Each structure stands twice: as structure tokens, then as C-alpha cells.
Amino acid sequence: QVRLVESGGGLVQAGGSLRLSCAASGTFCSISMGWFRQAPGKASELVATIGWSDGHTYYADSVKGRFTIAKDNVKNTVYLQMNSLKPEDAAVYYCACEAVAGQYDYWGQGTQVTVSS
Known about the structure:
Blueprint (H helix, E strand, L loop, with lengths): L2 E5 L2 E4 L4 E8 L6 E7 L6 E7 L5 E3 L7 E6 L4 E6 L8 E8 L7 E2 L3 E6 L1
Parallel strand pairs: 2-11
Antiparallel strand pairs: 1-3, 3-8, 4-5, 4-9, 5-6, 7-8, 9-10, 9-11
């Protein structure tokens, strides 16, 4: 029943912006929601997280100052505003739900972000 659906990916020129959305249904991500990305041939990388109750945010060093994570508690939705995109940001971006402390148990199918170089 749990489903996370990402949207907003696409092709963008280096220096451009995209806004990703992730809507969760069937569960509430009571601890946090996060964004991960996986580039070809690489392992999944944590990009950003946001605490569901306190709004505390975390960003990978590689995206600090460029990406912003936000949430809508009523909609059970998390967003990732990505500015000043670089070719190295190209990846499939996944949202994940931390419903139990310490575990991202639920994952979306991913949305492709392509950045031209």
C-alpha cells in the first residue's frame, strides 16, 4: 500500500534549475523524508533530508547552497529545489521515507535528472 511517487525530473542545461516533488501515500514518514540520487555506475548517494516534525535539514556538501529541501506535512510531500545544476548532478533521484527511526524503508521509483554539459 505504501507508495512514493517522484516527479519533476527532466533535461536541463548546466546552471539551470529543477524542482522535484515526492508524494507519499499509504504511510506517514513520521521521522524524516530524504532525497537520494544514483548516477550510472555509482552507489546511491544521500542528497538531503528533512525532519518531519522539526524541519531540521541536512545537505550533502556537494549540494549545499544550491539545493533546498522542503516539506508539506498536510500533503505528506517533500520537495527538492535544485539550482545552479552541474553535470555531476545528473542522476536518478529517489525520495525515501523514514517511518521507523534509522531506516528508510520506503522508496520511490525515481525521476531522471539530466544536465547537459
